[in-house]
Specification:
374 residues; mainly beta; Immunoglobulin-like; nine-stranded antiparallel beta sheet; six-stranded mixed beta sheet
Length: 374
């Protein structure tokens, strides 16, 4: 019983002390910003892992407890009454250092009105806080940045929409582009006469983009005036670059005969398809040869004609079977037109049979093809 009385008295005493407690939020602001040096020039490279370290002297809390830091950025002539960006310092806001990527700095520069390929200055300082007490550092500094030729904010997804497209003007049905690398998107599709644009999403009010010559620009629309054609549209938001490649015929190259057996017409939705084509292997002294790959006839934006070869990831292959992984049929760019290397092989049962050949250059999976034996 005595034990419980002691515990109760301890709780009462603690409660009384808590009632008398008042939070001490007094602190001295950061006195000095130590890095980077004032007016330091930084050439931004947002597609790399490059970073910049912002450092400062510690602020001092009167009761010796932790201080929380934020780094605030503003335009060169700003007064931080409405900073264009704020970031908590490293370690969840407790370290007197902020490691910031070039990508984030590029975004801040865009918000400050610094155009792509232009140079401008950003002002920065540190906000130290203890409870509700927030103190701006005693000094501010400038950094000078040069922005690359690209977008400060690269969309996570890109969609193709408009009257000229296969999906029409209904944004919810817009065609999603394939991400082929950081900030790079492409789509194989047909365009008919009319207008089209690219959207950052297929709902709500997305950011819209258009192709202007060889550049991607924010806002506006592109227009197709050459009639219905098939294209590969490639957008590189890192460099604000656009590449429009007209896709002509796709031919199945039969290596043993050193020639094309047939062309495969476009069927829509990034698919090329041909039905019931007779496949006959070539008889050689050592057996029957069945190697094949594909050639794409293309035309650049300047009208220059060319060819692109696609084939296997492997220089040589065995005939596929029921247990062959699906990656066997994936399409890979081939650097040269060598007759034999990087060919696929038809399955044994395709010899002297009619086959359907389907090529899939859609955006929802790896580029691939299939051979269906009838």
């Amino acid at each position: 019983m005595q034990k419980y009385i002691i515990i109760l008295l301890s709780v009462l005493l603690f409660s009384c002390k808590r009632d008398d407690y008042s939070l001490n939020t007094n602190l001295q602001p950061v006195a000095k910003l130590t890095a980077p040096l004032d007016n330091k020039f930084i050439k931004l490279q947002p597609t790399t892992s490059a970073t910049v370290s912002f450092e400062w002297d510690q602020a001092r809390a009167e009761d010796g407890s932790l201080v929380i830091y934020e780094v605030a950025f503003d335009k060169e002539n700003g007064d931080f009454s409405a900073p264009i960006a704020k970031f908590s310092s490293d370690g969840g806001g407790v370290q007197n250092r902020l490691t910031l990527s070039h990508k984030n700095l590029n975004s801040i520069a865009g918000k400050a009105g610094i155009a792509s390929l232009s140079t401008g200055k950003l002002k920065w300082t540190v906000l130290a806080s203890k409870g509700y007490n927030i103190q701006k550092a005693a000094e501010t500094k400038l950094i000078e940045v040069e922005r690359p030729n690209g977008f400060a904010e690269i969309p996570t997804d890109v969609y193709l929409t408009g009257a000229a497209t296969e999906a029409g003007t209904d944004l919810s049905k817009a065609l999603k582009l394939k991400s082929t690398g950081p900030g790079v998107y492409e789509i194989y599709t047909s365009l008919k006469n009319g207008k089209y644009a690219f959207a950052s999403r297929n709902t709500g009010t997305p950011v819209m983009y258009a192709i202007s010559g060889t550049a991607v620009k924010e806002g506006g629309e592109s227009e197709q005036t050459a009639g219905t054609k098939v294209y590969r549209l490639r957008l590189d938001f890192n460099n604000a670059a656009a590449t429009v490649t007209e896709i002509g015929t796709i031919g199945l190259w039969f290596a043993p005969d050193n020639k094309f057996l047939f062309e495969i017409p476009y069927a829509g939705n990034g698919t090329w398809s041909i039905k019931s084509q007779l496949i006959t292997f070539k008889q050689e002294s050592w057996g029957r040869d069945e190697r094949y790959k594909f050639r794409i006839n293309v035309k650049g934006g300047d009208g220059t004609a060319g060819t692109e070869w696609v084939g296997s990831a492997n220089a040589d292959n065995n005939r596929p079977t029921a247990t062959t992984p699906l990656s066997f049929w994936e399409l890979r760019p081939i650097a040269n037109s060598d007759q034999w290397n990087y060919c696929y092989k038809f399955a044994a049962e395709a010899d002297t049979k009619n086959c359907d050949v389907n090529i899939y250059l859609g955006t929802e999976k790896n580029y691939t093809h299939e051979i269906i034996v009838k």
